[in-house]
Specification:
- The chain is mostly helical.
- The protein has helices at about 20-50, 55-85.
- The protein has 2 domains: about 1-50; about 50-90.
- It is about 60% helix and about 0% strand.
Length: about 100
């Protein structure tokens, strides 16, 4: 049988995969929550309107987003660098008792 949403439907013995239907229900539920959140944000945006954002406001928002992405990317790069160069390995004193 073909996989559903990238989830295998049968294991090597021909039995249904563990909790396939539950995973599909979880994904559908999360997608429904996403749609509801986007709808709520759009409705609130239309209802509360308010003042228009000036140009410096958009510049500040873009700067904050760029700064956050740079910090997140830099920290992820440090994590990969540390892992690749063995800095995350045990030092010898932290082994099993």
């Amino acid at each position: 049988m073909a996989p559903v949403l990238g989830i295998p439907s049968d294991d090597e013995n021909g039995n249904p995969a563990y909790m396939t239907s539950m995973r599909v229900l979880i994904v559908l539920g999360l997608f429904a929550l996403l749609v509801a959140a986007v709808w709520f944000a759009g409705a609130a945006w239309e209802r509360f309107g308010g003042e228009a954002i000036p140009l410096y406001g958009y510049v500040a928002i873009a700067g904050g987003i760029l700064f956050s992405l740079l910090i997140g990317g830099g920290l992820m790069a440090l994590v990969f660098y540390s892992n690749r160069h063995g800095y995350d390995d045990l030092s010898g004193g932290d082994g099993n008792p």
